[in-house]
Amino acid sequence: MSEGVKHLSDYETGTRYRATVVSSERITEESAAEEVREIVLDVDREDFAYDLGQSIGVVVPGEDSFGDHHHFRLYSVADLPERGADDRPRIKICVRRCFYVDEYSGERYPGVASNFLCDRRSGDSFLITGPFGPPFELPEDPDADLILIGSGTGIAPFRVFVKQLYRNVPERRGRVWLFHGARTGLEMIYRNDAVDDFVQYYDRDTFEAFEAFSPRPSWGERIAWDGAIRERGEQLWEMLGDPRTRVYVAGLEQMLEELDEVFAELAGSDKEWERRKAELRAGGRWVELVY
Fold first, then answer.
1. Which of 112, 115, 110, 87 has the alpha carbon at shortest distance from 100?
2. Mean pLDDT value of segment 22-51
């Protein structure tokens, strides 16, 4: 089982340390149905360090369906580390307030971890663990192309990745193609009227961002990746054939099946796509951070 898709119960959470909320800010527009917050944390662990694309685990109180007294969830680190109060490591995480509908009763319930975090305010603290997950490595070759595919809050690790990329290699020649999926334009994260951290890259010849939405979001239909990817299919397939190209995927696990469908179409068959994806994985050039 790959690191990107293993279950939450497989993670080691014994080593825990406290994080204190510095601030919590809504980063989706007020008119958006989805509330996503950027939460800034000071971590009570001097040697806390993480690689690009990794996540922290959050341990919050509350009974779950298995009788445990805590809920454990993963959240991507959304910015480069800093130093905060008392020189403690300072990080940012991106949290969407979630609700779930019981398939039998039809009742709507708040997600325990996400609502706990979205309700925290400055000075509150809770336990975290990690970091976890395979890193999104910055390629040494300035001509290497990068394909970044993120859905929902999966855009968070790419925010820090692109920032680090252009900071380290400001005049890189390889293309950076960012595919960002959301149910609607109002639910775009870090790329909306309220907060657009990618605007500083739009004038670069090497950077392009593409959007994919749900055709009928109120009906719960999935994000239409096929349109955004198919329109650039010939170029994408050419990029995937270059041994320097890397593909990084972040977001909900269900997107993997959807992406396999559209890439198999580009490849001409499921078998050909399976072969190409296996080559990418084997070379560390296809990395998934999904939950």
1. 110
2. 89
